[in-house]
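Lecture 7, part B: from sequences to assemblies.

Below are the input chains for today's worked example.
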Amino acid sequence: MARYELVKRSVALITLTNPPVNALSSAVRHGIAKTMERALSDPKVTAVVICGENGRFCGGADIREFAGPLRGPPLVPLLDLIEAGEKPVVAAIEGVALGGGLELALVCHYRIAHFKARLGLPEVTLGILPAAGGTQRLPRLIGIPAALELIITGRHVSAQEALKLGIVDQVTEQNACEVAVEFALRALAKPLSSRRLSSRTTPCPPNLDALLEAVTMQIQKKARGVMAPLACVQAVRAAATMPYSQGIKRESELMATLFHSGQARALQYCFFAERTAGKWTLPSGAQWNDTKPREIRSAAVIGLGTMGRGIAVSLARVGIPVIAVESDKKLLETGRQMVIGMLERDAKRRGVSASLNLLKFTLSLQDLKDVDLVIEAVFEDMALKKSVFRELSKVCRPATLLCTNTSGLDVDALAGVTDRPQLVIGMHFFSPAHVMKLLEVVCGPRSSSETVATAMSLGKRMGKVSVAVGNCPGFVGNRMLKPYSDQASFLLEEGATPEQIDKALEDFGFAMGVFRMSDLAGLDVGWRVRKESGLTGPDVDPKNPPRRRQGRKYCPIPDMVCEQGRFGQKTGRGWYVYDKPGGTNAKPDPLIQNLLETYRSRYGIKPRNITDQEIIERCLFALANEGFRILEDGIAAQPEDIDVIYLFGYGFPRHRGGPMFYASMVGLQRVLERLEHYHQAHPDVPHLEPSPLLKKLVACGSPPVQKWREHIKTMHSHL
Ligand code: COA
Ligand code: ADP
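Predicted structure of the full complex, as structure tokens:
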């Protein structure tokens, strides 16, 4: 796990060999201990260079080992040994030096980085802190403000930035190992004592307390209830105020509070879930690693509304030529200006030049005859989409992939009007499409495995987290949203206010509660969907709307709010009131309070006090319950897929892991009991009836979320 060679007759070259990222597993730590001992004790060796195999220095601790007991040599004493050695040690950083990888580099006496390398201490994103001296050595090297920023954000820096900050001594465009060997030979004459970071004093700003206080407040405001960044601030404070020997103890105590926490487990689960989600399997058995995606050299986007513009920008900025289509000249011109503006701003932010030459704008579908792939993003109207797909089927060459950016319509029905149903697939982007990371790839029953592979790989190329899902109304994300928001509406009837429900959800960790979120998205969107599905409309008595529709409980309050022209932020009024149309500062509105009171008294509902616990349980257990049904129906293949969708598309707090992981942390038995309890109280709400899969998992002893797949029958798989 660590290779030892003697180069230039006197330099020991130690290469970490643990593909793919040379993580510091117990075997690697063991390897480093052995090879370092050999280097330090061999009189022929005058200097040491540490590097990683396959152009990757080290991706840090092996996260998979966190769940088990510590085996092999612990990292801290090993790193102390390297730093204390009397022979100069140089880190040759290629690829990445992250977490424990950077901590390893920090105990080396010199650091050489390849110009493409990235460095950072991302532990905070995994719910822990850099506990192999990182919080103590980095501030001693680059000062408190810069170290604090890197440690609490977990941000990766480029080699150039690392050089500017003083993290590395030299950046090279050549082979970093060879440069490091030469560097080590030149360093022989220089004293090592000042190169040992643990013996340095931390450069401290005069306003240390104020700085730490301000950062703490910022974290508390931005990442409500998240523990790790706060612990990082305390560890950095120790670096500023204590000698190294005490600071490292403080670091270790703080790590002990985080290491076994639910938040750390959730965040580490998210890390792997994100990677698992890319590994799709279809009912035919075809899967991600045996299907080659097609290369996409050109694309088209139809419709330059909010979604189409974002999609066009996302394609062009990764170098894919795009033809954008609109239905009339004026809209095309507006769309053109918007897309160009977005692309220019994006390029400026990234410090690159905008690839405007990749964009073409047209009114004619005929211009799409040669493209490799089309993404349709016209209005959410089945008849219109069908006519566009019929036309595309005639115009495009037979091999062109036809994708629809629908948020819930039947992808197979669209496939059915084309001459190539196997090449039709849903690509459900989230708004704004050039910002939001989630992409639901909606596989129809006739989508071929090559089509799935191509859409998934295109999503990845566009920087999206792509998840393959089956074809059903609302797919995964929007299908689950319904029971969640229904519960919020029922709670309004029973006595809660929008602001109380939002506060409970925001305290739980959501960036926005359900009502603030619908004000942002526009209340008319859901209203239109309810009208189309016959749930509301002109036949309903607006004064006395019934509270049952289509055989189940129905809350008419959202329709009543829309009937007053309150569509959310864009109209300046929705569940809240805003200072102006388009304003974002939500204030509780007494008119909504009146509406709720009048409603309750009309139907004889006696408002009751509703606790935050009930709000969380009813909204989130109903959400997870629908997730279990989605797994049962084979619309998602694994719980990780659902969680990733909620993390990246719906603002679910990452430190809670996603709705399915959260349910497993609460305990499936408890979720089941509470759903049974609420279903008894509301027998006409089918979403509260525990799903068979949940019952089955509880009967099997509530296995951990990673094992659910074994219990899910794939007989009905739509994937
Ligand atoms: N421990 C264990 N496994 C790790 C790992 C780590 N520190 N870092 C990466 N892996 C695994 C991934 O799970 C993935 O496994 P898979 O192929 O079975 O899915 C594989 O290594 C490749 O990782 P991936 O992220 O897909 O590769 P990449 O080239 O896109 O990114 C890194 C490489 C190193 C930037 C990225 O993996 C990363 O950020 N790793 C975590 C770094 C970290 O947080 N270190 C501190 C640990 S405390
Ligand atoms: P979304 O929010 O989903 O992007 P919008 O209503 O903002 O939806 O945008 C849909 C866009 O699609 C509109 O700009 C509309 O002009 C355009 N559009 C509708 N039909 C066609 C069509 N047949 N060809 C090209 N563009 C179309």
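Note for the exam: The longest strand covers residues 2-7. Keep this in mind when comparing with the next example.
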